[in-house]
Amino acid sequence: MKGILIDISGTLVTSNGVARSTINAINKLKLKGIPFRICSNASKESHNKVISDLSTKLDGIDLNPNHVITAISSSKSYVTHSNLNPLLLLSNSAKDDFKDYSSDKTDYDSVLIGLSAESLNYPNLNNAFRILNQPGSQLIATHASKYFADKDNQLSLGPGGFVKALEYVTDKKAIICGKPSDEFFISCLKSLNLRESDWKDVAIIGDDALSDLGTSLPLRKVLVRTGKYRRGDEDKVKDLYGIYDTFADFVDSID
């Protein structure tokens, strides 16, 4: 095993919090010398808030902020490098990563949509529709997950349905900045400083068969039966490497 890309919500952190076995498993990876990156579709909170919350939950783990890659940080990078001025359909916390972009501006040339109950309402979506009808405008999504595992351990609606609705009414294809975009996973893999020929020996682990494991890259796809996992999800994964009850069980299986 040359490296591991690890999901947060539903994999490291569940509705029950972080199990002691999860913390022990991360320490085992460090002792084995297996490099890992935490790669998350988190877009409800700012990148720094995600890192801060995770560091608190992983009590005693020295977490390198540079080893955490989120959909919101990837989206910020895309918007900045593309020199765009997007309408932000994001939570107030996620907007902290976009303080240089004033919500008072009306010369929007794009729309960025994330997981935000307060922003995904009819007036905002209609405004997004009008912006996207302008020539050259872009629809950008932090990710397009259909649903997520909520605090009550039930599934709740993700941003994917809203992204698909805007695609449908504007005839535009959304640019997905998070998982399962191959570009997102490639950025995570490059941060491991491995040769491209070694990528086939990198595991990617998560609870979402479609988003976490939906890449076309030749990685070792590992599904866990926590978070949003439901019976039969393993049948949705092409070239599944393995399925385990928990993240800790997977780490214990590594020779």
UniProtKB/TrEMBL annotation:
GO CC term, one of those recorded: cytoplasm
Annotated Gene3D superfamilies: HAD superfamily/HAD-like (3.40.50.1000)
GO MF terms, alphabetically ordered: phosphatase activity
Cross-referenced Pfam families: Hydrolase_6, Hydrolase_like
Domain of life: Eukaryota
Transmembrane segments: none
PANTHER family the UniProt entry points to: 4-NITROPHENYLPHOSPHATASE-RELATED (PTHR19288), HALOACID DEHALOGENASE-LIKE HYDROLASE DOMAIN-CONTAINING PROTEIN 2 (PTHR19288:SF46)
The protein's name in its UniProt record: HAD-like protein
Organism this protein belongs to: Wallemia mellicola
